[in-house]
Structure formats: C-alpha cells, structure tokens
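Check this:
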Amino acid sequence: MGILTAVSSRVTDFKRRKALEILTTSQPADLVAYGEKELIRCFKRAALQVPAYRRLLAEHRVPVEAVRDIPSFTEQVPVITKDLIFPHHSLRDLCVEGSFDSLRSIMTSSGFSGKFAYGISSTRNRQETIFGLDTTLDYTFQTSRKKTLFINCLPMGVTIPTTLPVADTSVRSDMALAILTKLKHEFDQFLCISDPHFLKKILEDGLAQGLDWKTINIHLITGDDWVPESFRTYLGNILGTDWETMERGFIGGTMGVCELGLSLFHESRHSVRIQRLAAENRALRYALYGDGVEVLPTLFHYYPHRTYLELAGEGTGPRDLVISTLGDTLMMPMFRYNVQDAALLIPYERLVQVLSDHGHAELAPDLKLPLVAIFGRTGRMITTATGTVTPEQIKEGLYRTAAVAAATTGHFKLSSSNGIAHLEVQLRKGLQPDQQSIDLFTQHLLICTSATCQLRLYSYQQYPHQMELDYERKFRNID
C-alpha cells in the first residue's frame, strides 16, 4: 500500500506540474479559445440532457441547433438568475439526466438574499475540484514542498476540497488559536480561510492573548465577502507581511458561488502587487478600472476552461457578471447565470499592456489567465441629497487607519430617511462610544464618499443589528 500511495502521489505531482506549465507557457488567446469551444459543446450537452434546462430553452424558443459560436450563444441563450431557476424546478431536474445516481454532496448558498440556492456535485466533479484547488495551493504556497496545515474557519458545513490535512474549527476563534498555539512548531506553514471579519477577529484575539503573529508562518485566505485593499494592509501589518515577497503573511482572496463552484477565482502574489500599486498610482488605477474609480475592486484570475464569463447589458463600466460553467463532470451545469456582482473583464494581454504603459511590465503575472475585477454586489447603495454611499466605500474607510480598524468588528448598517444617509457601526467588545471616537471615525470613515452621513457608534452589546448566528452568515449592510 505504501508503494502504491507513493506512486499515486508522484503521478498527481506530475499532473500538477504539467497543468501549471500549460497555464504559464500557453498563449493567453489559446486558453480563451479553448474555453469558448468547450462552452458550445457543454451547452449542447446540457440542452439535451438536463430536463429543466431543456424546458427553459423550449419556453424561450431557443433554436439549440443554431447555437454554434459565441455570437449565436450570447444572442440566443437567455440569462438566468437564482430566482428564475431554483423556486421553479426540482433539484433532480436541474441535474444531468435528471439523476442523483452520481451524487457526492449538496450544499446551500449563504441565504444572503433571503432565498437559498443549491450546489450539487458528483464524485468525479469532487475529484476534479480537489485537483484544481490543490494545484492552485501548490502554485501559491508550495504545499508539495512545505508541510502545511489548512485551518478551515468557514461556517459549519463548508468543507475544503483538498488533500492537505485540515483542521475544521468553523467560526470558533478560540479553537483556531488553540490549534495554532499547540502546533506552531509542527508545520512549515499554516493556511487559514474564513470570512474577512472572522480573520480579523482571530488576529486581534491572538494579539490579546499575547500571540506574536510575526513568529508564525501563516497565510490568510479571505472568502465569502468583498474586502478593500485597506483591509489587507491592516491585517498585513499585524502579521508583519513583507509586501515585496509575501513569503509569509500572504493575504489573498478567493471567490466562489455555491451553485457554480466554491473556488472559481483567486488572487495571487502578482495580482496583489498590482492592486497595491494601483491603490497608490491613480493613473494606473484609472487605466485598469476606469476614470473616477477610487475604491479598488478585487482583481482575480479565472480559468477559461472551467468558466466562461460575460457582462450583462451594454456599456464600458462595471456590469453584472454572468457565468457559464464548463466540464463533463458537472452534475448541475449552469449557463449565462447572473451572479449579480458588478465586474469588469480584463484580458491578460490588456493587463500586460497597461502595466507596460505605466512602466511596470515586471508585474505581469506568470499565469497567462484572463482576469475579472469584482466591485461588489450590484444595486447596493444609499442615495441622498448629497450623493451616493456604498458598503464598499464604508469598508474602505473602516480600515484606512489602524486606530479605526482596531476599534470595530467591521459590522455596520447603512440606511436612509428624508434624504439623509445613516451609518451605524459596531465597536469591538470592551469599547464604548464617546465623542473622541466619533470624531476619529468621522474623520477617516467618511473620507471615501461625497455623501453626508449621520454616524452613530454602538458598543458591541448594544448594536441593534446583531447577526442571527455570529459569523455563520453574511452580514447585510443594507436591507
């Protein structure tokens, strides 16, 4: 058994190396072209084999046989949403052949919108997901050469599809800190994934316990919510991150959608360096994301052989992101699925050109993948007589200075009445609002918006918008 395991491991390592070789040496246009070819083939398969999708196409009178290329696909195939799909079809009918025979796992979305969507995977799909994530982790953290423990601090029920050893602590900072304290000399490095607010809590709770984060080789993976660049800076300062190398203390995001896949996009050291430069260099920021963009989106790599990405509607600015999933192992394929995140698509060649034009050609990623910039959920803003304010602007302001960032949990609520924006912010445990803290928050928090906001700070216990289960679900900044 030991020999078989060793052989299997070497085969897997070889496959990972070959996959990374393809992604770093291929022509970017060839990777995209392959995905476009797969899109049409996978669409035809779903149109024939998925009962609910077959009925939906018939209702929209889509001539499936006429969908032969990208123009005909985008012209003929309808854009769908969670509300169009899940309330009106059984999960079985959304699956290939209307069958659960190859079912491996079922999970639900966060319920952020008040309604649930569902993700279904087969055993083969799970194996491919594990290979894909392990390859990404090896590329980013050299996990095949460094003894690694993955600490999963995502809410209960969300598992990590990896062959790495995993500690499932859910949203218990005391458990995560106990494991780190006890095992900090047993592993070369630790990876910790969670909601951004909870990662902040872990680091701050560790500091309160006397833990010196600068002595632990830990990397943080943010998921579940959009975070500003100022948030990365705040956590990086606690970890003692060297932003030039990020050999320890790397802080990078991943983005998934339950019904489409849990690790669709990810950041890299290359993309983080680009973001940190764009935060300081307005000309580069405008060239990448558009004139007037002050709050950076998150810049992700994506894999065109796994997902085909579009933007809904017309225009040159951020628009709704529409995703089609690709692959023969998918039990529940989705096509032209609007995830309702505002985004821009950035071809690899365009990124390289912009970097070169601004004198930073050396920052070009070695992965020859296209990129997607995520600005946050669409339609979430408060409009007042003095302008608009978004959750993203408030988040950017919350972390611009360490004093403000350290004083809050990160939870806040935006509302409006009589043309005035109201902002309620929760302080960390043990802190009480006073005029000095109100002045400090006002000075730094509202610098990112032109709208006038009435600010109110609450102690932790008195905050009137407590989550039903702390850190178990996304917090609704705007109802």
Q: What stands out?
A: The chain is about 35% helix and 20% strand.
